[in-house]
Amino acid sequence: MMNGEHFGKLWLDALEARFGQVTTIKRIQCPDKPIIYIFFFADLPEQGFLTAVTCNLSAANHPDWKFGAPELIVTMGS
Prior knowledge:
Largest sheet: 4 strands, antiparallel
Strand content: 25-35%
Number of strands: 4
């Protein structure tokens, strides 16, 4: 298992322990960039909402990331 995939499994396990079962997983990769996974949770935090959490975005490089690297979480009514 590649390092990013191992991190993804650990991250997924941690998210599901906190938020419940993931609804959908999307895999995105731009040329010469790390694979990014997006985990979607339907009806989180409540009915009618969708929450998406990135995984491995932090493996990318950005000049503004001096003290850490982000993952993102977005929630919206759906």
